[in-house]
Write a structure and sequence with these properties.
The protein is mainly β. It has two helices and eleven strands.
């Protein structure tokens, strides 16, 4: 019985030594972009100014990015937002003070971070949106909260404004 035990223990030891001594090759991380991926380098940015009569001075910027798939990503960065509050963001037809029809409802802006709540970017799948942005008669509007639609910040975009940055 002891011979059988020693024999099994010897076999187990040999297996452990064999597999334990294998040298694992460290693989480098893949640095290339997947097909359809890559970097975003075509953008147009506009200013969003404070309109809050209570003086909270909420302001920021909206950036439209063109993807390699001809889609548009929208990024919003706001300052002086109210922590733990969601600020609805919409694109409205016409210039500030004129338009009232909502063209696109964007994700809410998280008051804690000043950025969109769902993702860093809001996706507009219309492949002609970015290329028509320059002639778009619209503005972006940011409301106080999901229950109070007081506009705290807004800014003209497209034909109604000169971009603050683009490439």
């Amino acid at each position: 019985m002891i011979k059988t035990y020693i024999k099994k223990l010897s076999v187990l030891t040999m297996i452990l030594i064999t597999f334990g001594s294998c040298d694992l090759e460290r693989l480098d991380s893949a640095q290339e972009a997947a097909e359809g991926g890559g970097t975003l380098d075509t953008f147009t940015a506009y200013t969003i100014d404070s309109t809050d009569p209570m003086g909270s001075n909420v302001f920021g910027r909206i950036v439209f990015w063109k993807t390699d798939l001809e889609q548009t990503l929208v990024q919003i960065s706001m300052y002086n937002t109210i922590e733990d509050t969601f600020h609805p963001a919409v694109i409205i037809d016409g210039a500030v003070g004129v338009g009232t029809s909502v063209l696109t409802t964007l994700d809410d802006v998280d008051g804690t971070t000043g950025e969109l709540t769902e993702n860093k970017f809001f996706l507009i799948t219309d492949t002609s949106f970015y290329d028509s942005l320059e002639t778009l008669d619209a503005h972006v509007s940011i409301a106080l909260s999901t229950v109070d639609n007081t506009v705290v910040a807004e800014g003209n975009i497209g034909a109604n404004a000169t971009p603050v940055d683009s490439n």
